[in-house]
Every structure is written in C-alpha cells, then in structure tokens.
Known about the structure:
By secondary structure, the chain is of the alpha+beta class. It has helices at residues 33-44, 55-58, 72-75, 80-83, 104-108, 137-143, 148-153, 156-159, 164-168, 196-199, and strands spanning 114-116, 127-129, 171-176, 180-186, 203-210, 213-220, 235-243, 267-271, 290-296, 303-311, 322-330.
Amino acid sequence: MAREGAPPADPGPAPAGAPAGGGLAPGGPSTCLPCHAQVVDEWRASMHAAAFTDPQVRAPGQSDNFTRAECIPCHAPAPIFAAGIEPGARVLARVERRADGVDCLACHALESGVAATRDGLAAPCAPRLRPELSTEAACAACHNQHQTHDEWRASPAFAAGIDCADCHMPHVERTGPEAGAPRRGSSHRFPGGRDREFALAGLELSARVEGRELVATLRNTFAGHNLPSDSRNRALDLVVTLFDARGAALPPPAGEPREPGCEAGFARVRYRNPYRASGQPSTQLPAGQASELRVPLPDGARRARVELAYKLQPLLSDREAHWTHGLDVELPPP
C-alpha cells in the first residue's frame, strides 16, 4: 500500500496496442536525440522538462506530490493531438515516462509519425505538416487552465498579431552536423515565469508626487497576458518604503493587514491569481493596463523607494524575493 501523500505510481510503459499517448515511442526525448540533439538540449534547460519533477511543483499547496491528480494532465501530458487542440479541448494524462514532463512527443506525436511545421520533410520519424502546431492553439489545452489564453485574446498583443511563440519560442540559429549549414529555428527553452528578467520585462514602474501623496504607477506594457501569469502561486508586490531625514525607514500605519513574509515597506499592493477554491478575486495586472498605488505622505517622510518584489510562491519571505525596478524619489518638505 502506498503511503499517504506519496506521488501516484508511474505505471511504466503502456501495453502493446495502447492508444496514442499511451504507447508511442517509449524512449521519449531520447528517440529524438540522433537528429535533434540541440533542440533536446534546449528542452532539457526548460521548465517543460521539469514539469513533473520540479520541487516547487510537487510542494504542498501546489500539486502536493501530484496527489492532486487534476494537475497530472498538464504536467505529464499525452500527445496534444490525441485529444485535439480545438477550443475547449483538454489534454490527457500520460501513463508512462511522467518524469519527462512536457516532452517532445507531448507536442509532436501523432497516431502515425510526428507533427511538423513544414511540409516536404523526409526523416525516420515520418514528419507530417500540421500547421496548427505553430499557432497558439497548441498551447491552449494546458495554458488556458488558468485563463492565460483568454487573457491573451483580450490583450493588445492579440490585436497586433503577436502570439505565444513570438515571445516564448524566440528564433535561434543552430549549426553542427545535425543542422548542416546555419539554420534558423525556434528555441525550445520556453522562457517564462522562472526566467525573472524575461517575466518582468513587460513592466514599467514610475512614481510622482501629487500634493501630499506619492503616486506609484505600474504598467503592463509588453506581456501578452496578465502578470504574474498562469501559476496561481506567483506573486508580484509593488512596495513603497518611506525614509525620514536620517535615512531610517518609517513603519507602516498601525493596523494595516499584511500577509506573512510581506513586512517590508510603508505601503504595498499585491498582484496575484489566487486559487479558485480560496474565493479571493484575481488581482493580476492585465496586458496593456496600469495600476496605481497612492500613498499619503506623513510629515516625517523625506525620501521614497519604489520597487517590485517578485515571488515564485506568495508565502516566501521578502528576503527570498527578487527585488527589481527600483526608483528613488526625493520628497518635498511638508
């Protein structure tokens, strides 16, 4: 009997004759290595490769070692074409090689051969053109579970014809025996929320003084979806710290509620998509929109520090946050 809280057992290779996603290419990514070693190396450096093994994914409060079985389909998916990628489709859970996470075959495997984005290719894996593989529809079955795809459709990026791959699969040039002459392709490293500079590149922070108020403004100027996106556990805090004439930080107003680990700053606001079961509303910052934090200035305030604290888990302490976008503002005397 499995101990309580143990991850679901990996049943191993599927029996012969299993449907697509159950018994295709049991070698997984190793099947692709002879022809696509550079692409596989990119994938190995991605969070797709760690989707089932990453400690933060397995942590209590997240998949809880995948005892939350509803998390498995997106973290160890069967080939997306097995269930279809039309609007509203959901991926199926893979029954073998779950430790490979979101692997090559999850996106490329077909009942016969593999899906390709170009026609006329000849290779042992029998590539077949599936144009929809290079569209956002290929991402939606997993990434719209937390409405990221819907957020994109409501964003300026959608109106401008910019989709998921334009940002998350940037163009790269590959060389070497498998590529022949330098050949342009799309990176399979899939930078996202764990790449902090990438995740925060679409934010603009500014501050101004209006009378006896400091107004801090955060704009989501570039990202094609809400920020922080997708994961219900990421948190982005806009923090304002006030200092007196001696450089000492002023304490926050008495009685102001703070979540654990969020003690720093005179004033702060949190952007986050909480768990649906919590009943709390999302406070994410939508694409193309701005948010203001207005801070009344006490008489002793002489300088302000305005910055962002990015946390991969909301209960991390401020010491464990990634602090960025810092601005220093001199305040007029009262």
